[in-house]
From TrEMBL:
The lineage of its organism: Bacteria, Bacillati, Bacillota, Bacilli, Bacillales. This is YneQ. The gene is yneQ.
Length: 98
């Protein structure tokens, strides 16, 4: 279940992803498969090669890409999420949820 997003934030992320830009969106997220994780960051880009290349910088396996039509993305949570957002200078994505 996802919550904590404004519609315009989601729409902007979708526009950027469809345009072939790497973009980040973080929201509250609860999933029993991942206890202790209450947020997820989706890093999306419709250009799959660009997204794969971005993921390789962080040793993310290509098989982890969620191949949603129009919005392929990596789901980041836990230590991966924090480390990658820190490296990308995007910790603001997490700070609003703490």
């Amino acid at each position: 279940m996802a919550f904590g997003l404004k519609r315009e934030e989601l729409n902007q992320w979708k526009r950027n992803v469809r345009a072939g830009k790497i973009d980040f969106i973080t929201h509250y997220w609860l999933d029993d498969r991942f206890p202790g994780c209450n947020t997820v960051t989706k890093v999306g880009c419709s250009d799959l090669e660009k997204l794969k290349e971005w993921g390789r910088k962080y040793n993310l396996d290509e098989s982890w890409i969620d191949l949603k039509p129009k919005y392929p993305h990596f789901d980041l949570f836990g230590d991966y999420q924090w480390q990658i957002l820190k490296t990308e200078n995007r910790l603001d994505q997490l700070e609003r949820f703490k």
